[in-house]
Amino acid sequence: MIASLPAAFLIILPLLLILARLLKFLPENNNDAITRLTEDLDRILPQTQCRQCGYDGCEPYARAVAKGTVALNLCVPGGSATERGIARILGREPATSTNKEAHDADPQIAVIDAARCIGCVKCIRACPVDAILGAAKQVHAVLPGLCTGCGLCLPPCPVDCISLAASPRINRHFGWTKPGRLRSPRPSA
Amino acid sequence: MNRVLHDFPGGLKLPTGKELSDRLPSLLHPLPERLYLPLHQHVGHPAMPCVRVGDKVRKGQLIAGAREYVSVPVHASTSGRILTIGDYPVPHPAEFKAPCIVIEADGLDEWHDIEPSPDYAATDPADLQRVIHHCGIVGLGGAGFPTHVKLGEGFENAVELLIINGVECEPYITCDDRLIQEKADYIIAGARMIAHAVQARQCVIAIEDDMPEARQALVTALDGDDIELVAVPTRYPAGGEKQLIRTLTGRDVPVGGLPIDIGIVIQNVATAAAVYRAVTRGEPLISRYVTITGAIENPRNLQVLLGTPVRDCVEKCGHRSFSESRIILGGPMMGMQVNHPYIPIVKTTNCVLIQQRESLPPELPCIKCGRCSEVCPAGLMPQRLYHAALRDDFGQAVDRHLFECIECGLCAYVCPSRIPLVRYFRYAKTQINNKERQLQTAQDLRERFLAKQQRDRQDARSSPSAPEAAQDDKRAYLKEAISRSRSRRERIRHQHDPDEKPGDD
Is-contact B104 B254, C-beta < 8 A? Predict the structure, then answer.
């Protein structure tokens, strides 16, 4: 009995190892791949967390795309540029573009009317990126540098004191425009 | 005095146009009625107002403080009343309005209590840097980088050489030349103070070899051999930071690096004079020399209080009609064109250049002549950069060292096809910077989102709140209890009312 124990070990151990290897190999690797893909996809999403795609945020949408269950063109703020990026990562053709061009023309941010705010903290709970400061019965304020303008704080507000306004960031981050295109005609052959 | 001078690549001798304004002594510009002081006149974070509308302020009083290290305070340029604090036009290529403090001058020009620092040589360098910070001093050569930050970096590293830059290479501008001629002693004293603040081993004051009067003034005022005076050959852009370092030392600032990386600190002459005033008198930076020149009647250098409208200064020099003229802040090569003169003189305004408005001939295709490469002082190939910017191929532009471009404007100046090359480079630079900023913001937001999600999940796990249905039950129960107790109270009152208090009222 005692002598047979090491022998039993010798037989069982490799079996266990092989089984563990197999278990690890099959489902986990797939998960790893999805996690990696999700990270890659998430990196090119605009991170507005606006839920216009129908998911709870950019990362959940990236995960769904990585699992291959949804269309690639659901990101509204990212527009067709993001769609092309997703397609490139997945090595797929972008959908025959039904998506609008990205509307990065005028970014907006939420603004709280301090006179009407009652300090209910509902908007703070709704904000996906913690861009609203405040406490119960204290007036709330939006951190303009972090607000993505997703508008998710608007519906929960019981007194409708939040509105979207042009982002002051546009003013600060002035960009030089491209000089006009060449106006001279090319000499015709 | 016999330092071996070196040569920098590229560069060009330009018609200077300096004779317009460098003959006459500078004039003290009269006190304007209103002063518009932008909160953001420098590189870094804007200052934060610390006065209220209606407050009385005196000349030199702090009106906006610096909350961050890379920021400088703003002081009242004269005594008066704070009229408003709001958005007004500021010197900016896109006519932006930015927060300004508007002071209505009371005409008394009464000084706030300022106190000089004790003997600077006995002061701790760090304290000296603090004085410079509190006096709101920034680089007056044009870029407006906070001086104390540069000095702080200098102090942390060993400084071999301090260069006081009086090489005013840009055409038309003569404000540094005039300042040297009139305040040479200030500059020398200021240079010694800066040298003490960074503990520099050597100090050089550099000017151009076509500034004989300035040289004479400095030689007369210089009373020691601790400062070396060097006249460098006149060739644009000899006064550029990297070019001047190359000329004086033969060394190059590393790509993407700063002068301090090779043990050098470089400051403008006007900055040195401002440091002198700040240290010996406690005077904050509230005025500066400005060259008003170009197609006007009496080109001249003015000593202007910061916040004075450009229009006042230009009218003082005999110019009336602005509709026909182009207004450039700074020089013709690197200056910024603005559309109207209703903007204030700020810490970085060294020159107002008025030119006739002319219609520019059209831009032609690049013929790859390579003249831009010959003149580029940074050793770049502007034509390659241009093609990259034209195609929006920003990766290529960065590979070809776009960010080493100092925007001196020589490439566009010599271009036979009149291509506004610098505008393409600025476009590419802002595109790249914006993209980087966007990526950084997206990364921050992503982390915040994931952190919030995790927090929400933890909250849900640690405090399993009663299921929705149970909560409803509870609410209904409470409501019923309240209504029961209320009805009982009603009943009791009804029972007691008739017999207990019949004739209460």
Answer: no
- For residue A1, give the 3-state DSSP assignment: coil
Q: Which of B267, B302, B337 is the last residue of a domain?
A: B302
Interface pTM (ipTM) of the complex?
A: 0.76
> Residue A99 is encoded by which pair of tokens?
């998506």
Q: Tokens 């006064």, residue? A: B239
Q: Could you tell me if A42 lies within 8 Å of chain B, comparing CB atoms?
A: yes
Is B368 part of a structural domain of the chain? yes
Q: Which amino acid is at B226?
A: D
Going from N- to C-terminal start, the domains of chain A cover 10-104, 108-168
Is the per-residue pLDDT at A23 higher than 70?
no
Cβ contact, residue pair B427, A176, below 8 Å: yes
CB contact under 8 A, A59 and B450: yes
* Number of structural domains chain B divides into: 2
* A8 vs B498, residue with greater confidence: A8
Cβ under 8 Å to B: A residues 95-134: 128-131
Token pair in block for residue B52: 């209220």
Cβ under 8 Å to A: B residues 330-369: 362-365
Burial class (CB in 10 A: 0-12, 13-18, 19+), B362: exposed
Question: A108-168 architecture in CATH?
Answer: 2-Layer Sandwich (3.30)
Is residue A182 predicted with pLDDT exceeding 60? Answer: no
B64 is a domain residue: no
CA distance A177 to chain B (A): 6
What does the alpha-carbon distance between residue B183 and residue B188 come to, in Å, rounded to a whole number?
9
Q: Averaged over A38-63, what is the pLDDT?
A: 90
The Cα of A92 is separated from the nearest Cα of chain B by a number of Å equal to: 24
Nearest CA distance, A161 vs chain B (angstrom): 24
Q: Is residue B200 part of a domain?
A: yes
Write out pLDDT tens, residues B101-120: 999 999 888 899 888 877 88
Q: Which of B405, B445, B447 to mutate to test the interface with A (most CBs of A within 10 A)?
A: B445
Tell me which of B261, B283, B302 is where a domain ends. B302
- The per-residue pLDDT for range B346-386, each reduced to its tens digit, is 999 999 999 988 777 788 999 999 999 999 999 999 999 99
- pLDDT band, residue B227 (cuts 50/70/90): very high
For chain A, the first-to-last Cα distance in angstroms comes to: 99
Q: Does B427 touch chain A (CB under 8 A)?
A: yes
Which residue, B438, B457, B461, is CA-closest to A56?
B457
pLDDT band with cut points at 50, 70 and 90 for residue B505: very low
Which two three-digit tokens encode residue A100?
Answer: 């609008």
Let me know if domain A10-104 sits in CATH 1.10.15.40.
yes
Residue B133, domain extent:
18-29+122-302
In chain B, residues with a C-beta closer than 8 Å to the C-beta of A144 are: none
Q: Touching check for A58 and chain B: CB below 8 Å?
A: yes
The answer to whether A183 faces chain B, any CB pair under 8 Å, is yes
